[in-house]
Write a structure and sequence with these properties.
Length: 258
């Protein structure tokens, strides 16, 4: 039995065993005993995770893939969640547990997977995965680049991010039209913000939604005082601000709004 890749699920099955092994090896296992793989397909990555010391769970939305996994990986059968990762409450499935996230992610939902991981960062100390190359680069990018954006700032506020390696499209079935990139996220020791988190998210998103404008213009909708808007930081564009400076900006705005 071979599972046929489904376009509506964004499936591209990895064929290269070496790359699968390298992705599995990118997790350290520090501080957790459980790993959740998203979208295992036919288990090319799963088989290497099962060799590790931690307990591997998988979540798969495709019933055909679930049947394949239950047939070919008998020691995994009790740890298969047939559901949509974006719709489940992780803490219902993994109460009082720290777990790592890993996967060859469907490109059409990969950014949403990152945002969900950020929401659950209190239980996710580590995260490795394959993304479309430009998305992987964007997540890992530092300030000063045109690709630096919302996802870069929000992910780097809570995780240290390393771009590991690039993957050519020829190692997939069917091959996607783009290259892929594998990145690793390690949760920071202090993964709380010294400012209001909701306001921080709002400032970052509002600023980058008009990224060509200076902050003085892009943040007009926040109704800031004229005095604050004269601060030199407001003469900058969002891609010029590091995560630390976005936190500094949010603190100034928080104080201004009272």
């Amino acid at each position: 039995m071979i599972v046929k890749a489904k376009k509506h699920l964004g499936q591209h099955f990895l064929k290269d065993e070496t790359i699968a092994s390298q992705i599995a090896d990118s997790l350290s296992g520090d501080g957790y005993k459980t790993v959740l793989e998203i979208g295992p397909g036919m288990g090319v990555l799963t088989k290497y995770l099962l060799k590790k010391d931690y307990k591997t769970h998988v979540i798969e939305i495709d019933s055909e893939s679930v049947t394949y996994l239950k047939t070919h990986y008998l020691n995994l059968a009790d740890n298969i969640i047939e559901a949509d990762f974006l719709k489940i409450n992780l803490k219902d499935y993994f109460p009082n547990q720290q777990l790592a996230i890993i996967g060859n992610f469907p490109y059409n939902i990969s950014s949403q997977i990152v945002f969900k991981a950020l929401e659950n960062r209190d239980i996710i100390p580590e995260f490795s995965g394959m993304f479309q190359k430009e998305v992987a680069e964007r997540i890992a990018e530092k300030e000063g680049s045109k690709t630096y954006g919302i996802l870069s700032v929000l992910a780097q506020a809570f995780y240290d991010i390393t771009y590991l390696f690039t993957v050519e499209n020829t190692v997939f079935d069917p091959p996607p039209k783009v290259q892929s990139g594998v990145i690793h996220l390690k949760r920071k020791e202090n993964y709380t913000l010294p400012v209001n988190e909701k306001l921080f998210y709002s400032v970052v998103k509002t600023a980058f939604n008009q990224r060509r404008k200076t902050l003085r213009n892009s943040l007009k909708s926040l109704n800031l005082s004229d005095n604050l808007r004269e601060d030199s930081i407001f003469a900058l564009r969002p891609e010029q601000l590091s995560v630390a400076r976005f936190i500094e900006l949010t603190a100034k705005i928080e104080k201004d709004l009272g």
